[in-house]
Amino acid sequence: MSPLYRVRVCVKEVNGNCAMNYKPGDSFTVERFYISDMGRGICIHALSSMLTLLSPLLKGVSARVLGIGEQDDIGYVQCPDPGRPYTCGGTVVFELKREKIEHDT
Question: Which of 19, 29, 37, 94 is the most exposed place for a label (fewest CB within 10 A)?
C-alpha cells in the first residue's frame, strides 16, 4: 500500500493588497480530498492555482517532479491576481508542504 500524505498550505508572502487579507503564516490543511482547520475562507482564485497540484501531492508525487519546488516535500504556487498596475489586488505566494500520515487500520 502506498503512503498517504496531507498537504499544509501556508501563506509565504503577500505582494500588494490581497482581497482576502491573507497574512504570512495563515494556513489550512488538505487531507484525503478535503480542506480542514481552515478557520477562515479560502480564496477561490488562489485555490484554482493549486488545485491541479494538490491531488498529485496527496498521492505522493514529489514537488520537484511537479516543477514547483527544489525539494520533494515543499513546493510553491501563487494566486493569479497580478496586482498593480493591472488590478487593485495583489499576489499571494503559497507554500505547499507535503507530510506523510499513518494509514487507518
Answer: 37
**Alpha helices (H) along the chain:** 44-58, 63-66
| Amino acid residing at 46 | A
For the record, the C-alpha cell of 24 comes out as 504570512
pLDDT in tens, 49-73: 999 999 999 999 999 999 999 999 9
Order the strands of the 74-78 sheet from edge to edge: 34-36, 27-31, 4-16, 90-101, 74-78
Q: Which residues contact 36 (CB under 8 A, 6 or more apart)?
A: 28, 29, 30
The whole model's pTM is what? 0.90
Q: Which of the 8 DSSP states describes residue 21?
A: -
- C-alpha grid cell for residue 6? 496531507
Contacts of 84 (CB under 8 A, 6+ apart): 16, 90
